[in-house]
Amino acid sequence: MTVTEEPTATDGIGSRLLRREDAKLLTGEAKYVDDIQVPGQLWMGMVRSMMAHARVVSINASGALEMPGVHSVITGADIQEWGLFVGALPCAWPVTEDMANPPHWPITPDVARHVGDIVAVVLADSRYGAVDAVEQVVVEYEPLPAVANLDQAVADEVHAHPDLGTNKAFTWAIDADPDGVQAAFDAAAHTVSARFVQQRLIPAAMEPRGVLAVPSPYGGDITLHSATQVPHILKVMVAATTGIPEQKIRVIAPAVGGGFGAKLNINADEMLAVALANRLGRPVRWTETRSEAAGSTHQGRGQIQHVELAADENGKLTAIRVKIDADLGAYMMLITPGTPLLGSFLYHGVYESPKFSFTCDGWFTNCTPTDAYRGAGRPEASYLIERTVELVADELGLDPLEVRRRNFIPADAFPYATHSEIAVYDSGNYPAALDELCRIMDVDALRAEQAANRDDPTKPLLGIGFSCWLEIASFGPPGSLEGFGHLGSWESGQVRIQPDGSAIVYTGASPHGQGTVTTLAQIAADELGIGFDRISVRHGDTATVVQGIGTMGSRATAVAGESVKQAAARVVERAKVIAAHILEAAADDIEVGDDAFSVRGTPTRQVGWAEVATKSFQNLELPEGVEPGSLEATVHNAPPNFSFPSGAYGCVVEIDRLTADIRVREMYLVDDCGNVINPLLAEGQVHGGVAQGVAQALYEKMEYNADGQPLTATLIDYLVPSAPDLPEYVSGRTVTPTPNNSLGAKGIGESGSVGAPPAVVNAAVDALSHLGVRHIDMPVTPRKIFSILYGNGGDAGDTAGDEQGGRP
Amino acid sequence: MELTTTVNGETRRADVEPRTLLVHFLRDHLGLTGTNVGCDTSSCGACTVLIDGRSAKSCTVLAVQAEGAEITTIEGLAGPDGLHPMQEAFHQCHALQCGYCTPGMVMAAVSLVEEYPGADEHQVREGLEGNLCRCTGYTNIVKAVLSVTGERA
Q1: Do the beta carbons of residue A726 and residue B138 sit within 8 Å?
Q2: Which chain B residues contact residue A127 at CB under 8 A?
Q3: What span, in angstroms and rounded, lies between the C-alpha atoms of A620 and A659?
């Protein structure tokens, strides 16, 4: 049984508190968007293109309109004619001035550009009725040549957007010193180059997306319930897209069943629900089906990475040149062009900055748009460098851990200025993390077992792999999120003391499983001196939370938590003035704790939080100059910089010699996220992130065929791992607090998905290295391994024998 | 088509389209929204309920197939004395994050422990293969279930 603690009066930072969120989730009481039913609601069904690229010639809705209960069928032409939208779906981050950004309307008016692109919507009075009606809408398509994958996009002969004349949407580079980079390559003792694939992934949160828009036709306000990570951003974008004034819009994120970035977007269905509800004066709702999701929700990753790395005779990295081709999909969604760039500052990882050059070309394809998915650019970066140092070690005949140690940024070098002023690594101790990993993982014993197994044909092949990874969290410092198209770079925290001395905290963070309510209550309890159980935390409703940015980029604890802490501190300062008045002491001599204020040195002179709180509303009780209602504070905290969590992971895989099945047998996880507010929750975040990282390494890949047809749109074909597919985890920790906030906390939500894939792939390659294998692209499937063991073998980037031809 | 079935101890009568899935009958007709829909291929298990005490994916059962049966949903698990031991174990072990898979996972776990009271880690993992979770990585779920089997064995 796990060691846990029941909350006590002042439980706070560092406690393994059980979650307050659990009770309503465990009992089914929590309301996700599909659980919220409203009288008179219309069910929206989407008529989606079954072709990757086609002109919509005609839409015949007569069959659908004849069905009882069908209200209407709306086409792309209709929404243009009605002027239903004043703006197209937004791309908030134009990464270059000349970036191509073709219009992306909620219903395409003319051409479908990916399977799943909406060509019409039906409105019906029942869930099943909408499905029936969609099936009766007859669409005539004129097929157009489709760009089905990234290789085809880069070849640039067939165009996803023919009127652009090219598939290339932008070129973005960090290339301040090309001559220095080239000189380093020219002088290098060793050069290594490789091509890696970052396959497309489906985020696949367990709750499909959904929306419910409830208008108030005579009251004028409209409420949008959406399974979103960003209710306030959604509110701003609803106004910008539909033209409904911001003050009339309320967005509510109810209980949300996971996000992982997939619910961080501005989607056609959300805009359609609001605009149609507003126009018709009736509630409009839609719930995604799982099969629909491959075409209705953005996907993750989708890159081909080219790396060249120069090293000296001792294995010290002297230069790195990275070229990324990024698969954007058919349209720019909210941060589509930016996600491949988010890791660009990390491409030399935890190693001392070699000369550096990074270029990314973004390419349109006739596939579902890509955008943020857990890690959003940083898993790609850490994978590239952690695979490449293995190739360097191989080239030099050195132990890969030794190569890492020779290159680590030393522990006394922080804050570490890299080649980019945006990436100043706040703190870290990479050698210590690796030491800790080697302490909890008996590498020598595993190597002995590996050698013994190699010689014994009845035993599985063992592989041991490592990653010393780096991540960017705590999004983001001033200027950063504005650059991503967000309102600003901060998070809001508001603390309101209630007359009975309890507190309500409001946060702009929008959790969907992270345990943020428990975490913020811990932080507030610690700062306010009010018991954990007397603090409520509210989020997700734009009517009650002042403003917010939302939950993404591993920022809830680091940025939202800091806001709450600062707001609580301000409230305490004001409360001390009132307490001092009551106790007839100086405010500077007042201390707070255990639900009471006391005079330093004479603890018997006390007044409870309840009395102070009540009196804070009573004019005649207050000292001169203090207004009633002063025990409230709102902070929009901005972190001074990103934070850089890091860690060392070790992975042990077993490969069955007969079936070529590959399993992760053991996973060792040393994380450094700075100070930890709740270790129970921090571990849980790593467990989940590592699961998705292992899944990228071994199981998951979004496949399109040569016609741009999705082949892995259901959970039968798309291999989200289940319990027997994943191992137990052994967790460890090092702590290098960040100076970026007073909590010393960096954030941890995405770390697992950043650190795990290279550790697993390094292990798989290690298992087969005695056969000359140096690289296998993700996912490392049994079919690829079988081909290596029994077929024509494999080498860097080899996809021989991979099902469907292996396209990213 | 008329349907009489017992749900969480209460007899319910309804007239439903024959094609109505049990999960939609529970959610939309009876308002028992604890049971969730996570896929459309019987893959994810979020819809798991007990039918006559045995776990079943309610998305793959027609409501009319439940004629005369006793159905237990997540709403029927906690009692007047509080949470069911499996719910409490999930809470203690931090075996849930977003909670969307949780009702189905808990119901499947309850059924698993009923059938295999002495299940070990391997058997628990295999037994929960039909219930997907995207948040927890399963480690804490397995811990929670083992804490209950440990008490039963």
Answers
A1: yes
A2: 24, 28
A3: 82
